[in-house]
Amino acid sequence: MFTEEYFMKQAYKEAEKAFEEGEVPVGAIIVSDNQIIAKAHNQTELLNDVTAHAEIVAITAASEYLGTKYLSECTMYVTLEPCIMCAGALYWAQLGKLVFGASDEKRGFFRYGRELLHPKTTVLQGALETECSALLKSFFAARR
Amino acid sequence: MFTEEYFMKQAYKEAEKAFEEGEVPVGAIIVSDNQIIAKAHNQTELLNDVTAHAEIVAITAASEYLGTKYLSECTMYVTLEPCIMCAGALYWAQLGKLVFGASDEKRGFFRYGRELLHPKTTVLQGALETECSALLKSFFAARR
Is the pLDDT of residue B30 over 90? Predict the structure, then answer.
């Protein structure tokens, strides 16, 4: 049951919530020992705050839950390749593993290289990519 | 009165608060129309949250105050060169002007280039650099 796909679907459900709220549809969850300890979706519009990306909100929630600012035993599942800001936050959190869905050629951190993340962070990309990408495209198409 | 030095000293006072609280001493303020609309210092230890850098806390507070997530008419004064995470946040906020004190060769955003910030953001570095840098050195020296 606890497959990469299962967890990515939970992140996707968070992205759907963002979509329904008129937010750029990105969702993230953080898993520790096969347990989801944080769920979040993009809330930049609701909060009028550029820092309220799904990843940042999830990191804050997971740190609160664990009582530590280091997430080296955790995996983050996020529907879109993190931006520079979020990659920087994941660096400081020393995230154990990052799994992301859709790529973001324009604003994704990979443009600046994998070393934006902590050396200990393993990365898996392309999980549920088609669905994650389709949700984003559908969102932006509706706004044009 | 409303000189770069005056505002940088207010950011420095925030850094001193962080120092007193056992946090890495970094302070930031955000100014709009010569008025300070946000003051913050690093609170990563207190909040157990890697995202609680002075800049992130200040951006959230300024956006709340202005009721908009864009800070294109604002100047941020921060005692240390922002990291990747904070530069990424300042990009999304489309900050008008960034003034920083001490440089951070290891973790500062300049390592990856000025383009991590928004093209509209002007940058002034080295304001009150000696004091800002001395406070950081004093903090780390006491911890060795």
Answer: yes
CB–CB contacts below 8 A, A to B: 87
Q: Given B44, B63, B116, which is nearest A84 (Cβ)? A: B116
A92·B83 Cβ contact <8 A: yes
**Residue of chain A nearest B51, judged by CA positions:** A89
- DSSP character at residue B100: E
Write the CA distances from B109 to B23, B66, B97, integer angstroms: 21, 26, 15
Judged by CB atoms closer than 8 Å, whether chains meet at B88 and A93 is answered as no
Distance from C-alpha of B114 to C-alpha of B110, rounded to nearest angstrom: 6
Q: Residue A122 pairs with which residues in a beta bridge? A: A97
Q: Please list the rounded mean pLDDT of every run of 10 residues in chain A (144 residues).
A: 90 98 98 97 97 98 97 98 98 98 96 94 96 97 86
Three-class SS state of B65: helix
Question: Three-state SS for A92?
Answer: helix
In angstroms, rounded to a whole number, what is the distance separating the alpha carbons of residues A136 and B78? 35
CA-closest candidate to residue A93, choices B50, B86, B57, B82 = B50
